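U., I forgot to send this yesterday:
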Amino acid sequence: MSEGDKLRARTSGGELAYLDAGDPEDPAVLFLHGFPTSSFLWRSVAPLFSPWMRVIAPDLLGCGDSDKPADADLGIVAQAGYVRELLEGLGIGSLAVVGHGLGGGVAQLLALGGGVRAMVLLDSVAFDGWPAEVTREAQRQAPESDAALAETLLRTSFDLGMGHRARLTEDALAEYLRPYTGEEGSAACFRFLRSMDGRGLAGREAELERLEMPVLILWGEDDPFLPVGLAERLSDALPASTLALLPGCSHFLTEDAPETISPLMFEYLRSWYLQVPHVHDVSAPVVLELGRRLQEVDE
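Result:
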């Protein structure tokens, strides 16, 4: 499953580029990124799921390799509509959804619209708690286009939004920057930035409280854009939710700790979405090496 495998689907807003991996007959799981990322966000996560589930990972309209129309609505309500059109075109009416950042807001809207059987939210927008003040300040200063400023904005997003910045390689960062290079790319970047208006989720607590699906909420304790208090409020509103806070991590959890969150998400959806119990193969002896590091014990 690579960036070169992307398919395209037409929606009312424009064409979406998306990844489609796994057996089409398997239960579907939808991965939704936020800004300023793309489906590339899930490169370390999706391969764990595709042997068990059909993985659909679109680039939201205005992001990645999807169309970047100058006149389309890029807000999360509209994005949920475009994604729903994609799913309908693929014949998917029942699914699990995983959403990060703005993608988490789209995920919540899809869940409120029906058909979602389980959900995982990572540092997700919620209620009226977004965009962050740092984002609002960037919006106030956003020009129509400026390639150098767009690159600075995107690099700063990862500098601020990662607890372990050294884990993001220059090659990976270049892939995130790629859709927003040049004058046209930077114009698309600032259009999307301005679309983050905080609308779509405010005042919907009562609706969220009626959702009975299992929800796993993962959050970086050091997220400067969406603070932990928002995670706790979201967990309180969702009646069948489980909240896990990750110390030392920031907003971009899949970059900070993919080796931690990938199995957490997979095991959660395997159990609560697929309803497959966790079992070990006991047909053969299991050899365990037991030992201790004396320095750690002495301390």
